[in-house]
């Protein structure tokens, strides 16, 4: 009986060793295929980044007005995106307010050919909605880049140069998604608030988009922690990050 048990034990151990050996051998034989970055499209030659900068009237000792950005994004930029989406590889918005040479500014930044950039700039220059904002003193001016010269041909050329190169090259995809969600959120809320008589005068436009902005802001304050920050944190496996005030936070 003892010999039979010993044989069985030896047989089981041998089977386990063979299985482990076979498994290791199989793992060693697996070859990793070539892995490429997931990109929306290959950025074509002869394209670059372009800016259209809407500079607001911002008197001294007055808080910046932010809600006009929503009107610019929804009524001015959205139609250009719809018309030229196939020819714009990447795009985003940028909002700022600083008592410096740039002041209160809303920017539409996009990656395309110089020809498409020229078409978009020409359409913005002739847009009566833009002309009305300038005439009413809401905008001081709109600054366009010269499409005859490509100054930013690389995907990372509008990213923060202090970031690692890997972030510089991948960040434009992230911020485009965030900009598109923000724009679609504005569109959804505006459609819900819109009545039979859409705003026509500058005063009505400002009042309407101020309401839209208040709703967007309230959503950010009450739902942003989970809808945005929590799920972004989850992508990075809930690892804490060093916050601006040098605090470690999780979302």
Task: Describe the model.
- With 251 residues, this protein is an alpha+beta fold.
- It has one domain.
- The chain has six helices and six strands.
- It has helices at residues 2-29, 68-84, 114-125, 128-135, 165-193, 202-235, and strands spanning 48-56, 90-98, 103-112, 139-144, 241-242, 248-249.
- The strands form two sheets. A four-stranded antiparallel sheet has the order 2-3-1-4. It has a two-stranded antiparallel sheet with strand order 5-6.
- α5 (165-193) packs across α6.
- The chain is globular, with a radius of gyration of 27 Å.
- The chain starts with a helix and ends with a strand.
- 18% of the residues are buried.
Report on the biggest sheet. 4 strands, antiparallel
Derived from helix and strand composition plus strand pairing, the structural class reads alpha+beta
If you compute it from the alpha carbons, what radius of gyration comes out, rounded to the nearest whole angstrom? 27 Å
How many domains, in number, for the residues?
Answer: 1
| Succession of helices and strands | HEHEEHHEHHEE
Mean pLDDT over the residues: 88
- Percent strand equals 15-25%
**Segments where pLDDT lies below 50 for 5+ residues?**
15-27
Question: Helix proportion of residues, in percent?
Answer: 40-55%
Instruction: Please report the total strand number as a whole number.
Output: 6
Strand order of the largest sheet: 2-3-1-4
N-end to C-end Cα span: 63 Å
**Global morphology:** globular
Number of helices: 6
């Amino acid at each position: 009986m003892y010999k039979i048990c010993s044989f069985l034990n030896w047989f089981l151990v041998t089977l386990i060793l063979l299985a482990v050996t076979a498994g290791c051998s199989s793992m060693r034989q697996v070859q990793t295929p070539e892995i490429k970055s997931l990109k929306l499209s290959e950025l074509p030659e002869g394209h670059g980044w372009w800016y259209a900068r809407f500079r607001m009237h911002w008197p001294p000792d007055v808080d910046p007005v932010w809600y006009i950005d929503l009107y610019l994004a929804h009524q001015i930029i959205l139609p250009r995106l719809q018309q030229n989406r196939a020819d714009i590889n990447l795009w985003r918005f940028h909002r700022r307010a600083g008592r410096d040479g740039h002041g209160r500014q809303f920017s539409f930044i996009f990656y395309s050919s110089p020809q498409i950039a020229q078409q978009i700039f020409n359409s913005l220059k002739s847009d009566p909605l833009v002309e009305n904002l300038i005439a009413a003193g809401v905008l001081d001016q709109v600054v366009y880049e010269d499409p005859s010269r490509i100054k930013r041909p690389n995907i990372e050329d509008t990213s923060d140069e202090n970031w690692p190169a890997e972030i510089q090259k991948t960040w434009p995809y992230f911020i485009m998604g965030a900009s598109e969600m923000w724009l679609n959120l504005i569109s959804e809320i505006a459609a819900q608030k819109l009545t039979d008589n859409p705003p026509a005068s500058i005063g009505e436009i400002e009042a309407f988009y101020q309401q839209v902005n208040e709703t967007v802001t309230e959503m950010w304050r009450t739902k942003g922690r989970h809808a945005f920050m929590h799920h972004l944190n989850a992508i990075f496996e809930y690892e804490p990050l060093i916050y601006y005030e040098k605090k470690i936070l999780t979302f």
